[in-house]
Amino acid sequence: MEVVSLTLDEARERAGVLTSVSYDLDLDLTGLDTFRSHSRVRFRPATAETFLELKGALTVVLVVNGEAVDAAYDGGRVRLSGLSTEEVNVVEVAATLPYTTDGDGMHTFTDPVDGSRYVSAYLGMDNASKVFACFDQNDLKASFAVSVTAPPEDTVLANGAVVSHDAGRWVFAPTPPI
């Protein structure tokens, strides 16, 4: 299935109707071929419908304002409808995604010399949606609170300061809007 890129008109329209965007991300990087991504997106829309980008997910579970709903997912977008225009909405997307080997999204590399495995994320341009469900456009600034489960021997870095770290579980403070 072909993934449709966000158009300039769509980006302008969406930027004009969304406010108060924030993300709580919980990533599980313990899988070898895939990783789990749980996004909790808070936002206030001026319209009852919009969409999140999420590219290449193998599984998707969607909860909108506490209610499980069928995920209208086409391989690139999660369609949202019935949103409240009077208050902040909370959308949760749990997904399983493949690691990439091209450097974009959640990239994995195994050193051929010593067998060490490295995982890194590159979220520039429109690559964030290869890691988590989001409004993937740079004019919609948002804060990010990130939690990561990784093998205990790994070191995990993020944009927020470490709040806690215990045996493979890292929790980072929310960032200012970025």
Rg on CA atoms, Å:
16 Å
- Please bin the fraction of helical residues: under 10%
- Overall 3D form: globular
For the largest beta sheet, what order do the strands appear in spatially? 5-4-8-2-1-11-13-12
- What's the level 1 CATH class? Mainly Beta
CATH architecture label: Sandwich
Q: What about the largest sheet? A: 8 strands, mixed
Low-confidence stretches: none
What average pLDDT do the residues reach?
Answer: 96
| Total number of beta strands | 13
What is the chain-wise order of helices and strands? HEEEEEEEEEEEEE
Class of secondary structure makeup: mainly beta
- The separation of the N and C termini measures 31 Å
Indicate the CATH topology: Immunoglobulin-like
Task: Please state roughly what percent of the residues sit in beta strands, choosing from under 5%, 5-15%, 15-25%, 25-35%, 35-45% or over 45%.
Answer: 35-45%
| Total count of helical runs of at least 4 residues | 1
What does this structure look like?
The chain has a single domain, classed as tricorn interacting facor f3 domain (Immunoglobulin-like, Sandwich). The protein is mainly β and 178 residues long. The chain has one helix spanning 8-17; strands at 18-28, 34-45, 50-53, 59-64, 67-69, 72-73, 77-80, 89-98, 105-110, 117-122, 143-149, 162-166, 169-172. The chain is globular and about 55 Å long. Keywords: Aminopeptidase, Hydrolase, Protease. One of its GO terms (molecular function) is aminopeptidase activity. It comes from Nocardioides turkmenicus. Pfam families: Peptidase_M1_N (PF17900). This is Aminopeptidase N.
